[in-house]
Amino acid sequence: MVLKVHYFDAANRGEPIRLALAISGIKFEDVRIPREDWAAKKAANIYPMNQVPVLEFEDGTMVSQSGAILRYVGSLNPSAGLYPTDILQRLRVDEMLGIVTDVRGKIVPTMRMSDEAEKAAARKELTTTTLPFYFERIEKIMGEHKFSAGDNLTIADLDLVGVIDWLSSGVLDGIPADLVNGYPKLLNLRKLVHDIPAVALWKQKREVVSQ
């Protein structure tokens, strides 16, 4: 079974899916959509909900929704442990995935603001109040664990680190790239994920080693 992951030539919602496949040792086709082609693809109704990421199967069937795709690919190789079979552990993973979705949901509306003063005020609120609220509570949930949902790496960590990488990239005007530096558990989690050999290989060469 050869899967295709359709997303832009960017990280954000697509990269956790790519990394889950890479860590699981599942080779896939990485379909990167140029931004300038997106309007035409939407007009052609190629994708189920006219949005990406989308997972495509060998028979051409396509599935949308990043959370559903991430859970699916995280389940493909149980030995990788990315989406636990234990229902209580899975609950903790789903909890953290929901929190990460909430964080994204606070940031994304500011990207649609055309009024610069309104955007600046919203980004200031994110920086001083909203994001610290979430980061403090995520670290509290982590407790003494290295990972966001327990003792082992899961898809929740990949999703959370994806947001941390996004915030740390400096592409969001008004949100300091070093905002996460005040949260040592999140910084350590980011390093743990980046240091995984399969992750490093993917980021450097976009290669997957089959397990």
Structure overview:
By secondary structure, the protein is of the alpha+beta class. The protein has two domains: 3-81 and 197-205, Glutaredoxin; 87-195, Up-down Bundle (Glutathione S-transferase Yfyf (Class Pi), Chain A, domain 2), CATH 1.20.1050. The model has no long low-confidence stretch (mean pLDDT 95). Helix 4 (87-111) runs antiparallel to helix 5 (116-142) and helix 6 (155-168) crosses helix 7 (184-194). The chain has helices at residues 15-23, 38-43, 66-75, 87-111, 116-142, 155-168, 184-194, 197-205; strands at residues 3-8, 28-33, 54-56, 62-64. The two termini are 15 Å apart. Helices cover 53% and strands 9% of the residues. Helix 1 (15-23) links the parallel strand 1 and strand 2.
Summarize the structure.
The protein is an alpha+beta fold and 211 residues long.
Please state how the strands of the largest beta sheet are arranged side by side.
2-1-3-4
Low-confidence stretches: none
Number of strands: 4
Largest sheet: 4 strands, mixed
SS-derived structural category: alpha+beta
